[in-house]
Write a structure and sequence with these properties.
By secondary structure, the chain is an alpha/beta fold. The protein folds into 2 domains: about 120 residues, Response regulator (Rossmann fold, 3-Layer(aba) Sandwich), CATH 3.40.50; about 100 residues, LytTr DNA-binding domain (OB fold (Dihydrolipoamide Acetyltransferase, E2P), Beta Barrel), CATH 2.40.50. Helices cover about 30% and strands about 30% of the residues. The protein is built from 7 helices and 15 strands. The strands form 4 sheets. The chain has a 5-stranded parallel beta sheet, sandwiched between helices. The protein has a 5-stranded antiparallel beta sheet with strand order 10-9-8-12-11. The two termini are about 55 Å apart.
Length: about 240
């Protein structure tokens, strides 16, 4: 469903567009306005997919309205003046309906908008970070490190050492512990010291507020003790 609003200071023109919207499958009338300032206030607080806007209006023209509108809704101009067509396309509007326009012309413009909106909805705008691995620069190479292979991470000012279960030597990379912490899944890793982050799933032994990894003892500092104790309590068999 595409939510649309209509903006026109002429009552008959506004009535025509809203009537077309209401009888078109796939469109939902989210609002109608005879004043572009009221419409701008509505759009600032509501999510809308498509805007039908007249060009020549008091206070704010349709062109000015489109320029200041936050990027998001598609725009179709509805106007009695053909001379604004070039300006409209410079603003990358979907279509330009010249008054008086028929329902067939209206529907053709709507179908263009529907195709564009459908394409954007089905196309991810970014590649999300994953919860399985990350890449680190080390020794002039870029290495993939699986989260499940990490035992713990040690921070050393502008460097980090990543200790894994399959490599006796840590992977050294130029970074900070804070930056690396932001990349690690919070449900799998915990900072237990200003210099250490541990993989919670790899903890086998805890001795006197220290986590034991082989011959390495990592202290749980007072700053993080309550959070770590909460983790233990939730996973402790009494």
């Amino acid at each position: 469903m595409i939510k649309a609003v209509a903006i026109d200071d002429e009552p008959l023109a506004l009535q025509l567009v809203t009537g077309y919207i209401e009888k078109t499958p796939g469109l939902k009338l989210a609002g109608k306005f005879d004043n572009p300032l009221d419409a701008a206030d509505f759009l600032a607080n509501n999510s809308v997919d498509l805007v039908f806007v007249d060009i020549q209006m008091p206070d704010l023209s349709g062109i000015e309205f489109t320029r200041i509108m936050e990027k998001g809704p598609k725009v179709i101009f509805t106007t009695a003046f053909e001379k604004y067509a070039l300006e409209g396309y410079k603003l990358e509007i979907v279509d330009y309906l010249l008054k008086p326009f028929s329902y067939e012309e209206f529907l053709s413009a709507v179908q263009k908008a529907q195709r564009l909106i459908k394409l954007e909805r089905n196309t991810p705008d970014k590649i999300d970070a994953n919860d399985e691995f990350l890449f680190l620069k080390s020794d002039y190479k870029i290495k993939r490190i699986n989260f499940n292979d990490i035992l713990y991470v040690e921070g050393m000012k502008d460097y980090v050492k990543v200790y894994t279960q399959n490599d006796p030597k840590p992977i050294l990379s130029i970074s900070t512990l804070k930056l690396l912490e932001a990349k690690l899944p919070q449900n799998k890793f915990m900072r237990i010291h200003r210099s250490f982050i541990v993989n919670l799933a790899k903890i086998d032994t805890i001795e006197r507020s220290r986590i034991v990894f082989g011959k390495t003892y990592i202290p749980v500092s007072d700053q993080y003790k309550d959070k770590f104790q909460d983790f233990l309590n939730k996973n402790f068999l009494i």
